[in-house]
Amino acid sequence: MESRCPVVLDTTGRDVHAEGRVLREQGQVARVELPQGVQAWTVVGHDLAMQLLTDPRVSKNPRQHWPAWINGEIGQDWPLSSWPSMENMTTAYGAEHARLRKPVVKAFTPRRIRSMQPYVEQTVARLLDDLAAFPPGEPVDLKRNFSYRLPAAIICDLFGIPEEHRADILRGGEVTTDSSITPEEAEANVRMWTQQFQNLIDAKRKSPQDDLTTDLIHAEKEDGVGLSDSELIGTLFVVLGAGSETVMNLITHAVHKLLTHPEQRAMVEDGRATWEDVIEETLRAESPINMLPLRFAVEDIEVDGVTIKKGDPILMGYAAVGRDPAVHGDTADKWDITRADKEHLSFGHGTHYCFGAPLARLEARIALPALFERFPDLTLAVEDHELEPQGTFIMNGWKTLPVYLTAKAAAHSR
Predict the structure, then answer these.
(1) pLDDT tens readout for residues 295-334
(2) Based on C-alpha coordinates, what's the Rg of the chain?
(3) Were 304 and a residue from 28, 69, 399, 405 both cysteine, which residue would form a disulfide, CB within 3.0 to 4.6 Å?
(4) CA 327/CA 347 separation, integer angstroms
(5) For this UniProt entry, which segments traverse the membrane (predicted)?
(6) 18-23: Cβ within 8 A, 24+ apart
């Protein structure tokens, strides 16, 4: 078996796609170094990702299968500690995963998602009205004022998060996806979101509401083995984070691509391509998540000429997987809505497939055409090369997306 020299991941995420190409030089799985020198593997090949995402020899439970976490070698001050600290479906294995996932999946049935369309349309219309209120000629950060606010409002409404607590609660998710935070910030973030969600759970127990948080609390009473408080906290944390951060990046990337590919934007406008084409190609070429921590080898696994040893951490490199030339050929790095095969794994695969995928697609399918219909002269307010990355290797996004909403404003900038 060959050895592979670890690539030290750039915690600031300056160019996740370039880094993905470097990792792919090692094969379908690359040796990497995480913050504080933690050694791990990143899967960058589509076929191997499909295999390992359904392999029972791969676990997501650090409390069972990560010796360095179990023995305290890695603690709450590790910059990525929020991920193994959570007790929920994303850090569970086998039957435990099924138990924790069941009450959440019941809340996101296809029928319920379809019934949400009018509500999503109303939320989009309200946010577009807010955008229209900006002074003409003023650059607007579309990410903060639209791409972020839409999924944040929807997921917080669903779970009954009070308006006055939303910013702080969502901030915990933002910090968790920042791979460049300090040990002190990591430890403080775990303490903060644990207390915030405990306060929320206590409030809902005292005053139940018609929301999904209350449903989860009741589910622990209805089932034979219910959710503990720590499991409720972890579940709320991952659902609120995944329901806002990923959709935000999907919408932001789709808008950016359409603004920088006018010929493909024209194809959507005249019906030669669909908004579904835009959404799926964006998910493929610009996966909202770059690398998702963490999985662990339950036993030694021999793949792609190397041995992933028992207990080794594994990350899924979704951004690189979506651009695998073995699947998408020499044009894998190009965003092309006419591409016949838009296959991607950006919502995962197997038992951990994202239950919120239908809602994410619904939000994007409503938001994107409504935005371009309301502001048909939408343009970037900066040169494309001036855009800054989000600043993490976990997510794949832009820090901001400055735009002019009208043609008059765009002309004014020149």
Answers:
(1) 999 999 999 999 999 999 999 999 999 999 999 999 999 9
(2) 21
(3) 28
(4) 17
(5) none
(6) 19/393, 20/44, 20/290, 20/317, 20/319, 20/320, 20/323, 21/320, 23/317, 23/320
Q: Between the CA of residue 411 and those of 124, 181, 408, 414, what are the distances in Å?
A: 27, 40, 5, 5
Q: Counting Cβ atoms within 10 Å, is residue 162 exposed (0-12), middle (13-18) or buried (19+)?
A: exposed
For residue 99, the tally of other CB atoms under 10 A from its CB is 17
Token duo for residue 327: 């699947």
Alpha-carbon 106 to chain mean position? 21
Do 365 and 358 touch, CB atoms closer than 8 A?
Answer: no
* Type of residue numbered 227: L
Task: Say what the pTM is.
Answer: 0.94
Q: Is residue 42 within 8 Å of 30, Cβ to Cβ?
A: yes
DSSP letter (8 states) at residue 40: E
Strand blocks (E) in 243-321 = 292-297, 301-303, 306-308, 313-316
Collapsing DSSP to helix, strand or coil, 59 comes out as strand
